[in-house]
Design goal:
eight-stranded mixed β-sheet; alpha/beta; 2 domains; 505 residues; Flavocytochrome C3, Chain A, domain 1; six-stranded mixed β-sheet
Length: 505
């Protein structure tokens, strides 16, 4: 879509994922004119958000906070759903548990405090949600018991989220251009007042919001900040998040903020493409994830276990365990399961493209594990089976304390002997989702310089905001963070653009 920008826009938003859309909706709602610029073509628009399952973590006191957010208020399962509560104190504690002993950052406190109001704001615009029955609840005594504080996902998952948000942008009068990569900022009298496209075209605006992701798709930047192992990491999402937003902000003196040496990572199918399979429909791309390790064990090429697979609910461990897998010999591992948990494995383990080996015996299974020390693998499995607590009842809806003790590492919960054929093993590697290091922003999403001043006319949100995550990630927090800081940046950009135009009048 070609847009007449001779008079400029109030706000230009760079990127088209969840954070960018929330910034656009907020700016439009505040009366600003908005143009969204997306590097990808229409088929790949939506950034990393489109590759997600759409789950969003937020604080709530009970079902009374959840029901107004739902698309289907007449779902017959709702009276049978036990959503529990997830107060702000618990959300804060979950974030703090990854902070290496440090208290919440300012960004984390904002995420906690504004999570529910932001969800309510989205719902008011018609961006609605559905309970995650299949992945976040277990059926017990005829009820759906939700666990881990994560209960809702956008209707239609990631694609549904960004498509609905884009529809709201259009309904509010915003415009979007695809295949319009931004390569530079226009600066006049110290104020950012537009962008330059790859084509050389200039697009002028009173304020610019950078919402174009981190550097996870840039192998050189991954090695620079994360280490040599990350050169071979699979990229779960878009190939377009190469760090251009960071680079543009740095040219204006932006302060680096947050933990550049860490990232969100996930165990992924070893044989997936280097990027999420772009030939598959968006809803199918998530099937390369392999995050049911808590129901079995993981072995590296030495035939050894290397993490406590039952340390916590998988929502709180998969981002760290993806990194742990990538840092094993050969950047790989195997996930082993028996038939007792087959029905509990998520759909990605039954996906037509899933890689696995199978046998009716453990010996036959281990014999098929490529590049693995078979003798040590057999010894590890035998030792694990012997260490399992056979008295405690297995219960995947709680941290059940069913341990495998006296071995290193132990398995703290959900430990069951591998003893029921057929046995399956899935080869996995580490897949990177997004990076934690970014920029520091103020309460209006304004980008802060090293000297503490704010770069006039420049705002940022989404993965570009540093300080939100430190050593790990409670599942579902990323999309919520994008929405919270996107809303802030959009409102700030609209306010700044209005003040700038009033000053020029």
């Amino acid at each position: 879509m070609m847009v007449d920008n001779s008079s400029g826009f109030d706000v230009v938003v760079v990127g088209s994922g969840n954070a960018a859309m929330c910034a656009s909706i907020a700016a439009l709602g505040a009366g600003a004119s908005v143009l969204v610029l997306e590097k990808a073509d229409l088929s790949l628009a939506g950034g990393n958000s489109r590759y997600t399952a759409g789950a969003m973590r937020f604080a709530y006191e009970g079902s009374g906070d959840l029901l107004p957010l739902l698309e289907d208020q007449d779902d017959a399962r709702l009276p049978l759903a036990d959503f529990g509560a997830y107060p702000r104190s618990e959300f804060a504690a979950d974030l703090r548990s990854f902070n290496h002993g440090q208290d919440l950052s300012a960004e984390q406190q904002v995420l906690v405090d504004e999570s529910l109001p932001t969800m309510q704001w989205l719902a008011q615009h018609g961006v609605l949600f559905e309970p995650i029955y299949g992945r976040q609840s277990f059926e017990q005594d005829g009820r759906f018991v939700f666990w881990g504080g994560l209960t809702l996902a956008a209707a239609g998952e990631g694609p549904g989220l960004v498509d609905r948000e884009l529809a709201v942008v259009h309904d509010l009068g915003g415009s979007i251009r695809y295949s319009s990569g931004v390569v530079d900022l226009i600066v006049s009298d110290g104020r950012v007042c537009g962008v330059v496209l790859e084509s050389g075209e200039e697009v002028h605006a009173a304020a610019v919001v950078l919402a174009c992701g981190g550097f996870e798709a840039n192998a050189d930047k991954r090695v620079e900040h994360l280490g040599q192992d990350w050169k071979v990491a699979k990229v779960r999402g878009t190939p377009h998040n190469t760090g251009i937003g960071l680079d543009l902000a740095y040219t204006q003196g932006a302060k680096r903020h947050g933990v550049y040496e860490n990232c969100h990572a996930t165990p992924m199918d070893l044989h997936m493409p280097d990027f999420a399979n772009l030939d598959l429909p968006h809803l199918e791309r998530k099937n390369y994830r392999k995050i049911c390790y808590f129901l079995g064990i993981m072995l590296n090429n030495r035939g050894e276990r290397f993490v406590d697979e039952g340390k916590d609910f998988r929502n709180y461990t998969y981002a760290q365990f993806g990194r742990a897998v990538l840092e094993q010999p050969g950047h790989r591992a195997w996930q082993l399961f028996d038939a007792k948990v087959a029905e509990l494995l998520y759909e990605e383990y039954r996906f037509h493209d899933a890689s696995f080996v199978e046998s009716d015996t453990l010996e036959g299974l281990i014999a098929q594990l490529d590049d693995v020390d078979k003798g040590q693998a057999s010894a590890t499995v035998s030792a694990f089976n012997a260490a399992v607590d056979q008295e405690t009842r297995f219960d995947p809806s709680i941290k059940d304390g069913k341990r495998a003790a006296g071995i290193q590492p132990p398995k703290s919960n959900w430990a069951q002997s591998l003893d029921t054929p057929p046995f399956r093993a899935f080869p996995v590697t580490g897949g990177i989702t997004f990076t934690y290091g970014g920029l520091q922003v103020d309460e209006h999403g304004g980008v802060i310089r090293d000297d503490g001043s704010v770069i006039d006319g420049l705002h940022a949100c989404g993965e570009l905001v540093g300080g939100v995550f430190v050593g790990g990630y409670p599942g579902g927090s990323g999309l919520t963070s994008g929405a919270v800081f996107g809303r802030r940046a959009g409102l700030g950009a609209a306010l700044g653009s209005r003040q700038n135009r009033e000053a020029q009048a």
